Amino acid sequence: MVKIVSVHARQVLDSRGNPTVEAELSTSRGHFSAIVPSGASTGAHEAMELRDGAKEYAGKGVLKAVENVNSIISPKVSGRDFFSLDELDSFLNSLDGTANKSALGANAILPVSMAFCRALASHESMRLFEYIGRVSGTKDFVLPVPFLNVLNGGKHAGRENDIQEHMLVPSGFASFSEALRAGTETYHVLKGILRKKYGGEAALLGDEGGFCPKSASLDDRLEMMGKAVSEAGYSGEVHIALDCASSEFFKDGNYNIDGKEYTPMELVDFYAALVERFGLVSIEDGFAEDDWSGWRLFNSRMGKKIEIVGDDLLVTSVSRMKAAIERKACNALLLKVNQIGTVTESVEAARLAFRSQWRVMVSHRSGESEDSFISDLVVGLAAGQSKFGAPARSERTAKYNQLLRIEEALAETGKAKFAGKGPSA
Ligand code: PGA
Ligand code: ZN
């Protein structure tokens, strides 16, 4: 049982220079804070992010959400004992009273939930990942295979009708730090290839720290990634994955990529050919958030061969996941804490995925901060895969650096297990 002494929220800035909410929660053990991330290619079914819509910050201020923490949540929880994170999160949900957290805002509820999770870990004298492990029933901690978004497209690079994320997947290594090194070395080799082919501008960075070669087609991008992997010396150990974020280029039943129209059936063939040519191991949001038949088609054709990840489709929601399980729409969950709005519900989503033999990838948002909560989350859940952007820009490296710290802490007990499959994978 832990007594919350006080909760205070403030407006701070995220990695895109947009306002976001930081909450600071105090207990007898100290002060615990957390910052909420924010997406750009957000799913229509996500929990509601409250924005002021006023003149300041072009409507993007979050002072209403801040006020909801300070004037509604804080008076109700301050001076009160909570037995568990679940108890606080359920209380916050009932205080909000809506299905999508639109009364208080997911960006008001989530930082309080995350900060209290940190407080509970401290009261148990545990590291955050250990505490999350206890809450989620994890037996053995696992360091994730990092999915590094090295080429940014779509909304993260100011482009339309474009595949959003092109990721390196360094899975064939014995440890997380070796995988991160190989992925980062490949990122630098890719930078050299881009500069040589397109000039210095092609190596400018997008929202998630990946390069944005303006004139490179999808084929060019994937070819250059393959070339970078082999020049870096990691063929067979570093693979390639995509997040298409296809809801962004879905219109009237069809998909428009780079000026070319595809029916859902044609898009399945298009992706299958990419898998064949470039050895893609994972495709996220290949189909739009409500195009269930497209998802089913794709999963029945490719689901045994590659990972098919639902992001906008599932929005980390147990009810959307149940629909996807029933319809056999995908085989992996992308887990984003702010899509659902509490830590407890995020853990529940992961647990449902594990029970359904799905894979789980814990993800950042394109708008991030220095908060590295999700690094502890991915290890605490033993999810096995992380999607934290390129190995550049402090809001991304904050996450990788925290994983390196966790790896070191686990190594001291001989338990720094890596989710990759070793050099032969
Ligand atoms: P977002 O992008 O944070 O802008 O939604 C990330 C993703 O689509 O996975
Ligand atoms: Zn996505």
UniProtKB/TrEMBL annotation:
| Database matches in SUPFAM superfamilies | Enolase C-terminal domain-like, Enolase N-terminal domain-like
Gene Ontology BP annotations: glycolytic process
Which ranges carry the Enolase C-terminal TIM barrel domain?
140-424
Protein's cellular compartments: Cytoplasm; Secreted; Cell surface
Write out the GO MF terms.
magnesium ion binding; phosphopyruvate hydratase activity
Its Gene Ontology cellular component terms are: cell surface; extracellular region; phosphopyruvate hydratase complex
Q: Which residues bind substrate per the record?
A: H156, E165, E284, D311, S363, H364, R365, S366, K387
Domain Enolase N-terminal: residue ranges: 4-132
Record keywords, A-Z: Cytoplasm, Glycolysis, Lyase, Magnesium, Metal-binding, Secreted
Its UniProt pathway annotation is: Carbohydrate degradation; glycolysis; pyruvate from D-glyceraldehyde 3-phosphate: step 4/5
Catalysed reactions listed for this entry = (2R)-2-phosphoglycerate = phosphoenolpyruvate + H2O
Cofactor(s) needed by this chain: Mg(2+)
Q: Which HAMAP family match?
A: Enolase
Which family does the similarity line name?
Answer: Belongs to the enolase family.
Q: What is this protein called?
A: Enolase
Q: Which organism is it from?
A: Candidatus Iainarchaeum sp
Gene coding for it: eno
